[in-house]
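YM 10:42: Malate dehydrogenase sequence, as discussed on the call
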Amino acid sequence: MTQRFDRTALFTLARDLLTGAGLEKAKADIVAELLIQTDEIGVTTHGISMVPYYVPELKAGNMTTTGSHDVIADNKVTMLWDGNYLPGHWVMTQALETCMARAAEFGMAAMAIRRSHHIGCLSALTRIAAMRGYVCYIATSDPSGEWVAPFGGTEPLLTPNPWAVGYPATDHPVLIDTCASITTVSKVREHINTGVPFAHEWMLDNTGHATTDPTVFNTTPKGSILPVGGMDHGHKGFAMGLMVEMLTQALAAHGRVEAPTRWGANVFLQVLDPKAFGGLDAFKAQTDHLNAACRANTPIDAARPVRVPGDRAASARAASASKGVVVVDEVLTRVAACATDAGLTMPTPLS
Ligand SMILES: NC(=O)c1ccc[n+]([C@@H]2O[C@H](COP(=O)([O-])OP(=O)(O)OC[C@H]3O[C@@H](n4cnc5c(N)ncnc54)[C@H](O)[C@@H]3O)[C@@H](O)[C@H]2O)c1
Ligand SMILES: O=C(O)C[C@H](O)C(=O)O
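YM 10:58: structure's back
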């Protein structure tokens, strides 16, 4: 079940919950704005859903409430930052602005970031650069997290390790955003909270059997999420997961070697300026052509035409603007409990 809410009311609630837990207002404005934009593009697991997870982090001092990142290295086109466990959405807005400015000057820029806090939905971030005419790649891992076993193994060792590419097209950006595992930790938590098994065998129990049961996360020893490709060709998801850990931790010279125990995010960000290659118009001519050919492809099921990544985000944004922002019941229950704890009133649903 879902309900729709006014975006300003949801933004205000998210911002007030974050400032109430100690985050300085300028940063809370940015985090809350990006969380609501995430809900607006239909990624309900990583929108306002994250606030009840961030609040205890802020209160415990695990998510830093004030201050800035440190620049560890700056070679103009390549950079390394330390995020000091500041809110990932804030760190990423600073990193994106820096990389877009460098890409405008040099054609491309890449940055590794160590010790940010969680950066949320990657396509909400790549979309910022794609809307401004850039190609943007973002990958993230958490060197303190162990949720996904290497293919052929049974012990969780990696994180879901999402990577995303956003790039311009005429109608709306293409937003590819996918984990190296079949699903996310947040989705597993949602299924545990609602008691609903997965429709397919997306999990691996601690004896190496594929299962629909999300609660294998809670066994001792712990089960895990299967890599993309599952039991059949999970070597592909494992390969993607290794790539993301390398880009985000080896380039950041910080990762599992240091064995951090604090929830965090290492990031790799790359921005390319099509103007420094064949030009933005020529770029869009190619992406528009391929997108149109994909959408025109004869579908297996006429009721489910081919969609290009980013199409659903665009239609969800349009529906959010006209009808309000969707919040799923599982999220609403946790956000309402968080609001009650903070002495805040929940907004009234629109429908
Ligand atoms: N910050 C973090 O640590 C972290 C970790 C894991 C995931 N996440 C976020 O969680 C979100 C969900 O990740 P996910 O891997 O479950 O994504 P997903 O499986 O829902 O989608 C993966 C990709 O497939 C596309 N897609 C989905 N259905 C499609 C269809 N029928 N046709 C064409 N394209 C389709 C989506 O647009 C997306 O590009 C992402 O936004 C990700 O950034 C964040
Ligand atoms: O929530 C996390 O701990 C990581 C990530 O956002 C996920 O959902 O997998």
